[in-house]
Amino acid sequence: MDFEIKTSAEIGRIIDEVKRGTRVISISGITSIAAKAFVLSKVQAQTDKSFVVVTDSNNELESWECDLEFWNSTVSESALRIPHSALVALPSFETDIYSGVSPHAETQERRALALWQLARQTAAFTVLPAKSLITRTLSPLEILALGAILRRDEDFAPEKLIEKLVSAGYVREEPLNNIGQFSVRGGIVDVWSPDSPAPLRIEFFGDTVDSIRAFDPETQLSTGQMKEVSIAPMREFSASPQDFRDWAFFAREAFPDERFTRNVKDRTGFADEGESFSGWEFLFPLVKPLGGSVFDYVKDCIFVIDEPSLIEQHLSNIYETADRRLAEILNSDDIGLEPSHLYLKPAELQDRLGKVSRVELRSLGRIAAATDEEFGLSAGSAGSVPGAIATGFFGSGSKN
Fold first, then answer.
1. Per the omega criterion (within 30 degrees of 0), is the bond before 194 cis?
2. What are the angstrom distances between the C-alpha of 251 and each of 273, 275, 364?
3. Strands 171-172 and 358-362
4. Using CA atoms, how far apart are residues 297 and 123, in angstroms rounded to an integer?
5. Are the C-beta atoms of residues 292 and 115 closer than 8 Å to each other?
6. How far, in Å, CA of 381 to CA of 375, rounded?
7. Burial group, residue 82, by CB count within 10 angstroms (0-12, 13-18, 19+)
8. Backbone phi, psi, residue 318, to 5°
9. Arithmetic mean of pLDDT, 164-193
């Protein structure tokens, strides 16, 4: 179903189509992210549906996040239904997966917290760039197991909590003074989770949680008792010292050729000691496969594709670049995993997208956009990278 937004009446008709369950809705005539966010906020408020907004990049994700927060706090209907916490942003890793460099710690923290929130409860709006759409990750059950829910007067062995914290990316610091740190003193564990405004002091009586208190890290004074608390993971990769030792064994098996010896040894020298090394996150699926994707976290949601032709071109570039970079590092005797270990295959993405309802946002109408794409392709644009028409991630035409 195609709509060109000119008056508020069109928004009402879009709301009717969403309620009716129309499979693909195409909206044109709105060019700014702020205007698109306004329309979606109105639609969400009237339908009570959950939406996944797919953008081109992390920069646009930030604009969408800002504008959705603004409209959800000022549009009266949505202000009643969408609290600030119901908006979840899942940024993508900007690091080259074959560079031997780990993702930025802040991005790891933001992604892990977003996945933790989505695994526990569907958000009214989830915003993510195209790269996050195809990135493999842990399943929701694995993310939930990586974090912890503690309740006063219930059993949860402190040793188990400490093991979880280490595997989930927390760093031991005495005393702690920042998010992602923990400290241990006898039967007391202090921890600062990314979903908590203040650090928590958990006192154990044997294996029983005896007390949970928030406290001021500067004065060490308690600010309140709590009955239950969640401790979110700091990264979406689960890794214990034994996991690193296991990886070292499998790495030697996977890359036996002598030309890889030096680069394998550079990593296994750390992994054999149970320690991490730079870029391990993109090599770890060798021993701990990533069995989930964002699609597992946002079931029964409507996908909003912001400028489908741009996103399809961007996805094509990601896949092409991954294939090219893997060939380059293998030719230079370095090691890396096939892109399919880290990204959904194009056929998998097409299959997943084919099963969801979606709203397509285009500055141009569908026919004009298709004509523009065909002209660009016939002119040999983008260095002959397969474009949206050739790739067809979002199919063609409208379906009810």
1. no
2. 14, 15, 49
3. unpaired
4. 10
5. no
6. 9
7. buried
8. -60, -50
9. 95
- Output the pLDDT for position 161: 97
Is residue 87 within 8 A of residue 69, CB to CB? The reply is yes
- Confidence (pTM): 0.88
The structure tokens 């096939």 sit at 338
Tell whether the model's pLDDT for residue 378 goes beyond 80. no
143 CB-near residues (< 8 Å, 6+ apart): 112, 115, 116, 119, 137, 233, 236, 292
Closest C-alpha among 8, 25, 6, 11 to residue 360 = 25
- Residue 47 · residue 74 · CB < 8 Å: no
Average pLDDT value over all residues in the chain: 88
Closest CA to 54 of 64, 45, 44, 46: 64
Instruction: Using pLDDT thresholds of 50, 70 and 90, give the confidence band for residue 394.
Output: confident
Query: pLDDT tens across 244-300, in order?
Result: 999 999 999 999 999 999 999 999 999 999 999 999 999 999 999 999 999 999 999
Distance CA 385, CA 168 (A): 38
Closest CA to 206 of 249, 156, 251: 156
**Strand 208-215 relative to strand 200-205: parallel, antiparallel, unpaired?**
antiparallel
Nearest to 361 by CA among 25, 19, 82: 25
